[in-house]
Amino acid sequence: MGLHDLGVSMRPHLQERIDAVDAEGYDAILLGYALCGRGTEGLRAGKTQLVLPRAHDCIGLLMGSRQDYLEYFNAHPGTYFRSPGWIEFQIPGQTLEPVYAFGNDKVGERRSLEDLIAQYGEENGRYLFEEFRSFRRNYSGLTYISSGVEGEDDFRSQARAEAEKEGWTFDEVKGSLTLMERLVNGDWDAADFLVVPPGSTVRGALGDSIVEAI
């Protein structure tokens, strides 16, 4: 999740880890990521094949298929999604938006109002916080993806409270771990998973395939 916050900048971190285990004699390296804002595009398989699900982002993974996600998305435009993981690792008062960088200084995602004020001063800190939250104006509803984990009643309550605070409608859908289970069990049919052969690279693709190997 920490690497996901970096957006496309997570690619070199993932590649470094892939390269580090490439010579260990594994049958495959599994990536628990989707295309994720093209953060996995450009990853290269060395001697070991890479495997990742065909999905645009974590919502498709959590719902169990990109088809279920697309069907829900088309029927519920303007929806913001929450899951137990996103809620559990969220810092109170933080923003949840893309990372912005001023030189080598990253600001944005998971930065609280207090943190921004401390670093940039009262006026600039509040301005940045509001700018980072401006993306929320495009949403009208919040949907909680239930996954049956322990403590879910509390996570659900937090998601509902967030929707009420924003003036959004609230909905809940039953998630599925099917894709993650199939990933770790080696059930990699081409319809739902991309297997990247040694020497090939991940690339985003148009259409239903989402990712391809070149």
Summed up, the helix count is 8
- Can you count the beta strands? 10
The biggest beta sheet reads:
3 strands, mixed
Separation, N- and C-terminal Cα atoms: 27 Å
Beta-strand content bin: 15-25%
Strand order of the largest sheet: 1-2-8
Helix proportion range = 25-40%
Name the poorly predicted regions. 91-109
The averaged pLDDT comes out at 85
Tell me the series of helices and strands, N- to C-terminal. HEEHHEHEEHHEHEHEEE
Question: Radius of gyration, Cα only, in angstroms?
Answer: 19 Å
Tertiary shape: globular
Descriptive report:
Helix content is 35%, strand content 19%. The strands form four sheets. Strands 1-2-8 form a three-stranded mixed beta sheet, with helices on one face. The chain is α/β, with parallel strands linked by helices and 214 residues long. The protein has helices spanning 11-21, 58-63, 66-75, 84-88, 113-120, 122-133, 152-166, 178-185; strands at residues 28-30, 49-53, 79-82, 100-102, 105-107, 141-146, 169-174, 193-196, 202-204, 211-213.
